[in-house]
TrEMBL record, chain A:
One of its GO terms (molecular function) is GTP binding. It holds the Pfam family FeoB_Cyto. It comes from the Bacteria. CDD domains: FeoB. This is Ferrous iron transport protein B.
UniProtKB/TrEMBL annotation, chain B:
InterPro entries: Fe2_transport_prot_B_C (IPR011640), FeoB_GTPase (IPR050860), Gate_dom (IPR011642). Residues 135-227, 308-429 form the Nucleoside transporter/FeoB GTPase Gate domain. The chain crosses the membrane at residues 66-87, 93-118, 130-151, 178-198, 218-235, 241-261, 302-323, 352-377, 398-424, 430-456. Keywords: Membrane, Transmembrane, Transmembrane helix. PANTHER family: FERROUS IRON TRANSPORT PROTEIN B. Residues 249-296 form the Ferrous iron transport protein B C-terminal domain. Signal peptide: none annotated. This is Ferrous iron transport protein B. Pfam families: FeoB_C (PF07664), Gate (PF07670). One of its GO terms (molecular function) is ferrous iron transmembrane transporter activity.
UniProtKB/TrEMBL annotation, chain C:
Keywords: Iron. This is DtxR family Mn-dependent transcriptional regulator/ferrous iron transport protein A. One of its GO terms (molecular function) is transition metal ion binding. Residues 6-78 form the Ferrous iron transporter FeoA-like domain. The keyword Iron applies.
Length: 265, 464, 79
């Protein structure tokens, strides 16, 4: 179990994350930490025994002579920012723009795990879906067809049984390929139905103008339509983000000032 | 994070919710996402001889009326029993080695011509306290933490929350409080931080304020040692059994107090409607032994031990000084103890015991060594493996079974250690809740000890 | 067969129904949705705790425990 505080989130503003940056997201209990540990080995700051300030676990690994920085985001069921963990995860993906976004899913209950994967696909394209615990699933008579899944999602899929070390090399290979552009994921986004898609379609060009690519316009449109943020909120968000980038100091103010931050109590 | 603790309308969702207005759109979005997830899953996942019977069977066994509660209590007993038995020999060995080194240190200091007070301060004060803490704490932690991490990885802990939720509901608290309490067994500061898993501010605060009623690893050695000396000593052949039963009984008592105080808080200071309780029961997974050992030893055992050691050495030095700086022919330590004595006696304790608890504020681990240093006017400490002389020393200072029981109860219930208080402060965004936690727990400790002391005296008076 | 709409807490152990509506509001509603409690989802009553409450349900390949207070605000259709 790992836990985060608002003021710990200043690490999010740390623009000095070494690149290429790989972020791990996933539901709780999907073996995300096992994957993280398997990737980074002992080269990590662990999210130590809580009790003092905890930061996101960070680590590195080398593959094909590239040093990848890996960040383990908190385990969440969703990215709709209903809780602090979800906000941390969402804001990290939104603002730090990982070079490769690794979504860890549990083969034994893929359906619910895809909820998160599909949400993340709204924010970033550079996604790899990792279907973990295939050994556990096989024991229960559940088999996931990676090719079909990959075709349906439009993003690369790697099957792993991280605890047994199965699929880890393939995972690193895929991370490298997505990073280097050899594989270009093109997520097949959720269709929200005629009415909503029309509204999104109208908003996107305007948002593209306003934010000139600093926020994913489709995600911004969705969050405006669903009432999470107003356009002013988002402008404020980007402004504070830009300012704190310039200051390159602590981002505390950024998070305490988050406008319209409705999920957070 | 200044939380509005009394504003829980969002949690219960009954009024003025901001997201209310657009509920339909949000519902639609989530529905569409799940629709897609479902259709993808239908195409990509094949169910062959689908079975999850085993998990269900285990769950039925672990959560049913008779076996569920029995298993839980049995597990608690077995864990303490294993910890007690297993830690015994390594503790003795460590004590022998560490206390053996003392001789070398002393002769070394003498050979370089250090004055006697330097020797006393460094060796008798700092080193001995340090040696005590390490030899008493390290072995039980090195057994307890892996066992605990094993249960955590296995997926058993959410079942405990599931089993106990009804009682927490009755107490106006959240079932996940059971999880934060399990974390508290390791370290209360960690337990307090883990309260973040409870989303409702009101229920989270209840969990934070009561976390200290589960004994952490810093207090277990005190409980274990006193239980083996005074309760285990009552029946020489069944000593270990009696001692582990006593420790388990204390833990259960701590849980009862937690529920009682939670109820009290939720009907007074922290009134409010219960929030929704959604607990996932993840599938059981065979834990990975290697990762358990690495995580429990590196991240937990050594972290907690390191903190205790960092506090123990300076505290030992300071206490030694206090025991040797004399004012009007009496050491400062003795004067403080004399001042606290009447209050201590009232509760079946004494002044030295109370003083040791106060001086042990930085870390609970050092309470017993400080107490012993107080009793031994010359400030030399007994090795913790020397049971006979330990007990003799305590009995010579007027200890009875009541004193032992009440010291254990006070240790279980009293104010949180400084680290925990600090953590409460930072978790709740204000010192007032830390103060509240300290006052609440101390009041409970004083009250319970006073009651047991009075009862004991009454019984003694009736019998004799 | 006849269809009935009942609250989830009345769904007997071992029986399966389909989620018809979530009567929760606000944050609770969002949490249930996130876990896949959307209309049409199959849900099975799995087992109850030894105190009779909470109860564990099987939904979308996962086991979720709910208190009576919460499950009574979820409507399911049974056949």
């Amino acid at each position: 179990m790992k836990f985060y505080k608002v003021r710990d989130m200043d690490f999010l503003m740390d623009d000095n994350f070494p690149r290429p940056l790989v972020a791990l997201a996933g539901n709780p209990n999907t073996g995300k930490s096992t994957i993280f540990n398997a990737l980074t080995g002992l080269k990590q700051h662990t999210g130590n025994w809580p009790g003092k300030t905890v930061s996101l676990a960070r680590g590195t690994f080398y593959h094909r002579n590239v040093k990848f920085c890996v960040v383990d985001l908190p385990g969440t069921y969703s990215l709709l920012a209903n809780s602090l963990e979800e906000q941390v995860a969402r804001n990290f993906i939104l603002f730090n723009r990982p070079d490769v976004m690794l979504v860890i899913t549990d083969a034994t209950c893929l359906e619910r795990n895809l909820n998160l994967a599909l949400q993340i696909m709204e924010i970033t394209d550079r996604i790899i879906v990792c279907v973990n615990l295939i050994d556990e699933a096989a024991k229960k008579g559940i088999y996931v067809d990676g090719d079909v899944l990959s075709k349906e999602l439009g993003v690369p899929v790697v099957a792993t049984a991280a605890r047994r070390g199965i699929g880890l090399f393939e995972l690193k290979e895929m991370i490298f390929k997505v990073y280097s552009g050899k594989v270009k994921p093109s997520p097949r986004k959720v269709n929200y139905g005629e009415e909503l898609e029309k509204a999104i379609g109208e908003l996107v060009p305007r948002l593209e103008n306003t934010f000139s690519g600093r926020i994913n316009p489709r995600w911004a449109a969705l969050s405006i339509i669903s009432g999470d943020y107003s356009i002013e909120d988002l402008e404020e968000l980007v402004k504070i983000r830009d300012e704190s980038r310039e200051e390159s100091a602590y981002g505390y103010s950024f998070f305490s000032q988050l406008p319209g931050n409705r999920g957070l109590k | 994070m200044d939380i509005h603790f009394f504003h829980s309308s969002r949690e219960t969702g009954d009024s003025n919710d901001i997201s209310h207005e657009s509920t339909d759109v949000k519902d639609l979005i989530v529905e569409k996402i799940y629709e897609k997830a479902e259709s993808i899953t239908r195409k990509a996942v094949r169910y062959d001889r689908f079975r999850e019977d085993l998990d269900k069977k285990i769950d039925l066994l672990l959560t049913s009326r008779v076996t569920g509660i029995l298993f839980m209590l049995l597990l608690l007993g077995v864990i303490f029993w294993l910890t007690l038995i297993g830690a015994n020999y390594p503790s003795q060995l460590l004590a022998k080695v560490l206390f053996g080194i003392q001789g070398f240190l002393e002769s070394f200091l003498m050979s370089i011509g250090a004055p006697e007070w330097v020797n006393g301060f460094l060796v008798t004060g700092m080193y001995r306290t340090l040696a005590w803490v390490v030899s008493v704490m390290l072995p039980p932690m090195a057994i307890f933490f892996p066992l605990f991490t094993f249960l955590e990885d296995l997926g058993y802990l959410p079942r405990v929350a599931f089993n106990l939720d009804y009682f927490f509901k009755r107490a106006g608290a959240h079932g996940k409080q059971a999880l934060t309490m399990s974390m508290g067994f390791g370290c209360n500061a960690a337990g307090v931080v883990s309260c973040r898993i409870i989303n409702s501010p009101r229920e989270r605060m209840i969990a934070i304020l009561t976390n200290n009623f589960v004994p952490c690893n810093g207090r277990f050695p005190t409980l274990i040692l006193l239980a083996s000396l005074f309760i285990g000593g009552l029946a020489p052949n069944l000593g270990w059994l009696l001692a582990s039963l006593t420790v388990s009984g204390l833990v259960v008592f701590g849980i009862l107090i937690t529920l009682l105080v939670s109820k009290l808080l939720s009907s007074t200071l922290l009134k409010g409607l219960p929030s929704s309780f959604i607990l996932e029961l993840p599938p059981y997974r065979p834990p990975h032994i290697g990762s358990i050992i690495i995580r429990s030893i590196y991240e937990r055992t050594l972290f907690v031990l390191g903190r205790a050691v960092a506090v123990a050495a300076p505290a030992g030095g300071i206490i030694w000084l206090l025991a040797h700086i004399k004012f009007e022919n009496q050491s400062l330590l003795a004067q403080a103890a004399a001042f606290l004595d009447p209050l201590g006696r009232l509760m079946g304790l004494d002044g030295y015991i109370l003083m040791a608890f106060i001086a042990g504020l930085p870390a609970n681990e050092i309470v017993l060594p400080i107490l012993l240093m107080g009793y031994l006017a010359q400030g030399t400490m007994i090795s913790p493996d020397d049971f006979t002389s330990l007990k003799e020393l305590l009995v010579n200072h007027g200890w009875t079974t009541l004193t032992a029981i009440n010291t254990m109860l006070f240790s279980l219930l009293h104010f949180p250690c400084a680290t925990t208080l600090w953590t409460i402060r930072s978790e709740t965004g204000g010192a007032r809740w830390a103060v509240c936690a300290a006052a609440l727990t101390t009041a409970v400790a004083l009250l319970v000890c006073f009651i047991t002391a009075s009862l004991y005296r009454l019984v003694m008076w009736v019998i004799f | 067969m006849e269809k009935h709409v009942i609250t989830l807490d009345r769904l007997p152990i071992g029986k399966t129904g389909r989620v018809a509506a979530i009567l929760h509001k606000g944050l609770s509603r969002r949490r249930f949705l996130d876990l896949g409690f959307v209309p049409g989802t199959l849900i099975t009553t799995y087992f109850t705790s030894f105190t009779g409450d909470p109860t564990a349900y099987r939904i979308r390949g996962t086991t979720i425990a709910l208190r009576k207070e919460d499950s009574s605000k979820i409507l399911v259709i049974t056949e």
